[in-house]
Description:
The structure holds two protein chains of two kinds.
Chain A: H1 2-9, E1 31-33, E2 74-75, E3 78-82, E4 85-88, E5 91-100, E6 103-111, E7 143-145, H2 151-165
Antiparallel strand pairs in A: 1-4, 2-3, 3-5, 4-5, 5-6
Chain B: E1 2-8, E2 11-17, H1 23-44, H2 52-58, H3 68-83, H4 102-119, E3 125-129, E4 132-136, E5 145-150, E6 158-164, E7 167-173, E8 193-200, H5 203-216, H6 220-225, E9 231-236, E10 241-243, E11 259-260
Parallel strand pairs in B: 10-11
Antiparallel strand pairs in B: 1-2, 2-3, 3-4, 4-7, 5-6, 7-8, 8-9, 9-10
Helix pairs in contact in B: 1-4, 4-5
Amino acid sequence: MGPAVRAGLGMASxxxxxxxxxxxxxxxxxxxxxxxxxxxxxxxxxxxxxxGGTTGSTGSGASGSGSxxxxxxxxxxxxxxxxxxxxxxxxxVQVEITVKSGKVVTVTALELPVGGRSxxxxxxxxxxxxxxxxxxxSSQIDIVSGATYxxxxxxxxxxxxxxxxxx
Amino acid sequence: MVRRVEVVMGTVVxxxxxxxxxxxxxxxxxxxxxxxxRDIDERFSPYRPESEISRIADGxxxxxxxxxxxxxxxxxxxxLAASSGWAFDARRHRADGRLDPSGFVKGWAIDEALxxxxxxxxxxxxVNAGGDVVLRGNPQPDRGWLVGIRHPTEPDRIAARLExxxxxxxxxxxxxxxxxIRDPRTGAVPDQLVSxxxxxxxxxxxxxxxxxxxxxxxxxxxxxERHPGYGAIAITADERLVWSPTAAPLLSRGSQEVxxx
Lengths: 167, 261
């Protein structure tokens, strides 16, 4: 799937553009930082640990903390794999996928805490599948129209997650 | 509920089936659905050098010799260009002037692929292709699908909510400063609206009208209304929510009121 996906992902006019929470302006784009969450990808399971889509470390510094849950876990719902952390002018982007029986069932884009922001991460979630995570005035929502994601950062991180999952 | 997601056509496409059918039984239907999208991408993507569109753009293939659906798509694009005063123009919207019907192909491809879901007898499902949505049936006995329109500046919030009993919802928007939408008439990034959502029976047209009306700007929703069955909800640059008459009954309670265009 690699080459075809890469070609498809390069399709800029249907590009993905994620709006990230603007909390930090980085001096350059596209610099790949060390992952703040350790990424497995080898499929090791960690009993009792699940990587939820929108939860994560709470306000610890971004680079190198590595203290939160592993990037690849097995739960009843499938295995999760994290993509690389990409720095953009809006902050950090990392994509997490959940794979079940060789198919991607969830795609979540995570914003990682930068500069000691306190409180739980308000993850940027792929509207397709994580609409239940939108706080959205507490109203019930099945699906969200109008998404999208920064073309290169999201695609890069997603491709890395796919590569780790071997898809 | 059975859910399947793939990355195809440069975006993430998810299918969420609510019919009581086991996942194994749905496998062939999902395969056919995604295979259709991959096939269309190979033939239409301007980023694949050997696609029919690329070969036409290069002059290596005459349009008249292209496949029937390529000619169909280009004819639809030309019609849309004429009826929108060239606010939509697949032949001229790119800075390098290369043919690029992607703004039409994305929605049309989903409608083509949906045939497999419908032919398999599925009656209640949602498809989300990078924020363009098609709904069928009612997810609960007492209500239709509740579709949020993403807030343009607060990513974890919605700006409005629609209740859809079957149909398509497509949104065109600029969520970051460096937009990928350009007005073919001026080369500039449209700046009157931050987001425009079209609702209507078919994603092919909802998607195309959303792209077009967003470029048109403040008069976009009225332009959408010229097409029977299609309505629009827009968020203006000064953060007002506006909607056209066909869209009005679909806005569900709790949506912020503003002006009606």
